[in-house]
Amino acid sequence: MAASFKSDEARFKIALCQMLVTSDKERNIVHARKAIEEAANKGAQLVLLPEIWNSPYSNDSFPVYAEDIDAGGDASPSTAMLSELSRNLQITIVGGSIPERSGDKLYNTCCVFGTDGKLKAKHRKIHLFDIDIPGQMTFKESLTLTAGDSPTIVDTDVGRIGIGICYDIQFQELAMLYAARGAHLLCYPGAFNMVTGPLHWELIQRARAADGQLFVATCSPARDTNAGYVAWGHSTLVGPFGEVIATTEHDEAIVIEEIDYSLIDQRRTFLPFQKQRRGDLYQLVDVQRRNTELTK
Ligand SMILES: NC(=O)CC(=O)C(=O)O
290, CA 20 to 30 Å: which among 56, 184, 193, 196? Predict the structure, then answer.
């Protein structure tokens, strides 16, 4: 069950910063800073950035733009900026994702910062984007990146949030696990492309929201048709009935919309999936929890 919220805490504004990403990292960081400040000035308490917002989305770029997030400071100017802004503006930031260097490995990593500027969670993309649709789209993140090995759910001032990065959204089991652990909102920084975007982007967000009866927010880079990888755009917020609450096209935009968590309980009363689920016939196994219990 989702943790309950007092009525004054149930509503807040989310901002989806669909920003243009260039090959100039410093410019990307300045640009993200401005977008976050604008969103906060317009009342957003939660800001979501796109997947790989400080670097071009390419296997050639990931090693060059990667930052050592754990070392922090100068070793990670992108996350230092997110930490500073979340503290100064007193907002929660789900910081899209950046290429992360950790020892000799690279990850596609999303950092969540609380209103005190502290890093609350770090999600390393679990499902790497390795696909081959002949003649249309081939990408192999595993050429450079290592997959994360842990789901990420985090309690923030704006609710319990489950994190996935782009291709992670294709796996409904992860979303249902987050729903079972009481998430109110799933945030997916993502950069779907011109093949998978029109096919799956909205369809899957709506499915994840309708199945889990919770909110789903996505944030894409803006489309740059000159880039090596052309993003679909269409950052979107979906409600717990699977309804699109707010969306945009493919240009730069900051989508700001209210989230009202009281709708979660209301929708779950209307459609009581949780009571009707046939646990005698099928079950979602929380492997992490089971392994923890086994080692006790
Ligand atoms: N960046 C990605 O993971 C892209 C993706 O998932 C897609 O379908 O496109």
Answer: 184
**From CA 272, how far away is CA 53, in angstroms rounded?**
39
13 is catalytic: no
Q: What is the mean pLDDT of the chain?
A: 95
CATH of the domain at 208: 3.60.110.10
Q: How many CB atoms lie within 10 A of CB 118?
A: 11
List the one residue out of 7, 12, 21 whose CA is nearest residue 61: 21
- Note down the domain range covering 98: 11-294
Specify the residue with its C-alpha closest to ligand 1, atom 6: 167
What's the rounded Cα separation, in Å, for the pair 289 and 285? 9
pLDDT tens-digit series, residues 78-105: 999 999 999 999 999 999 999 999 999 9
141 close to ligand 1 (CB < 6 Angstrom): no
CB 51 less than 6 A from any atom of ligand 1: yes
ipTM of the complex: 0.98
- State yes or no: is 296 an active-site residue: no
With 90 as the cut, is the pLDDT of residue 296 above it? no
| pLDDT, position 31 | 98
Query: Mutation test of ligand 1: which of 130, 131, 218 has the most ligand atoms closer than 8 Å to its C-beta?
Result: 131
Active site residue 166: yes
Residue 282 lies in a domain: yes
